[in-house]
Amino acid sequence: MTVPPTLRRAALAAALSLAALPALVHAAPSPMLDASHPVDWWFAFKFNAASFPGCGGSAQVDSCQFGGSPQDYTSGNGFSQQFVYASSSQPSLSQGGGCVGDTTTDPVGATFSQIYNGTLNYVVWNDQFYGDPAIPSCSGTSCGAPWGHSKGVLAWDNQGNGVVMQVSTPSWPASGSAQYPRGSDGNTLGCVQDNDVKVSQHFFALKLSHADTLAVLQALANASVATDPGNPQIVKNGGPADIQNAVSQLGQRSDSSTPQVSKLSSGVTLIAKPSALQVPPWQLVSAELGGAPLRAATWWEGSKSIAIPSTSRAGLLGQQLADAGPGGHRHFRQLGRTLVLAERRHGLQLQSRQNRREHRRRRRLRHLRRHEPGGRAVRQLRQRPERPRRPVLRPAQRRAGELHRQANRRQHRRRRALISNRAAGAGDRQAGSGIQNLREQVTTLQPGLSGGKLWRH
Cα separations (Å) of 165 from 153, 157, 178, 402? Predict the structure, then answer.
């Protein structure tokens, strides 16, 4: 039987369409700049309410597409959802429009919509869910130490290809699927009861391969992130068997003290710090990046109780950490203590002179108590009034003060010389006046001189 050419062409076209259909249906999840623009990675920074209040342009928080309702704080200047972003297609920062996270036209909203309204497997973790959902292994509405202070969502398909979005916002995200929405709170930025859009926040999304997804899950377990594999609101476990096994290990406290450092297929370095590793996180990152100088902005800096230095001075210590080698960082615990001690020494150097003077006074008091208990010197030391606090001067300030004192000393010497010259001039004038008076007296007495004798009255 001969098949007509028209029918053969139609059959060929149908076969090609069916061959292309699986590629479209099983397109790997990716970070999205908008609903139709996938990229390999993007970064977004949300400004704070004091600098950039409200949303971009005249936009308003009204859609709440992932659940919730617009909150009262979005009606004034107490929030900010203005943002800038960069991506693999445009690495330089650009200003975004509208309200970040509220629509599918911005990177945060478009990427999360792919997860929330799709069929992907997912893990949502957040140490500040505020009770919805409740984490059984945490006490209270949030998870403090030793749980990891980390937030984000990881999603993957049945082949293990995935996308991860790390965030810094408390109480968002708190649900990974529209089938399991939050029961007592919203799940959209600007629609959450906690005003998590008042201060600055950051977001980072990255495309993952199967191996990358497995590495991220292992890193989450090492960091003791707060999640619950038994709650479908925040965990949907599926896909390859190794990934499912890694998901089942989440929600437990890790006893590890070794950081996990992985090089992902995209070239991004993944660093996971366990809570048992007592080192400043910024110095750990600097060390693992070859001593790269970093500047940390943390909540500690608000009270100024703990100095937050640049890590550029920690290059040698960072090199020691890097030199521990790829064999599991055998000496990392001791090197971690070294870093902590170095940080403490740096903090002591920044303490005021008053604190150091008080330390010396107490040390002397202990010495006197040991050798002369209850003696007069001890009583005097106890009763000694506290000296006024003198601020610690930076090298530039000390140099400026020394130059000022030198100028004062020069001015003082000039004034003394001027006063001395004036005094000398006054003395000369006084001496000249006395000689003139004596000359006048002698001139007056000359007519009374006779025979060399003074005339007597």
Answer: 5, 15, 18, 53
Question: What is the reported pLDDT for 11?
Answer: 56
pTM, two decimal places: 0.65
* pLDDT level of residue 454 (50, 70, 90 thresholds): very low
Note the pLDDT of residue 243: 97
pLDDT (0 to 100) of residue 436 = 59
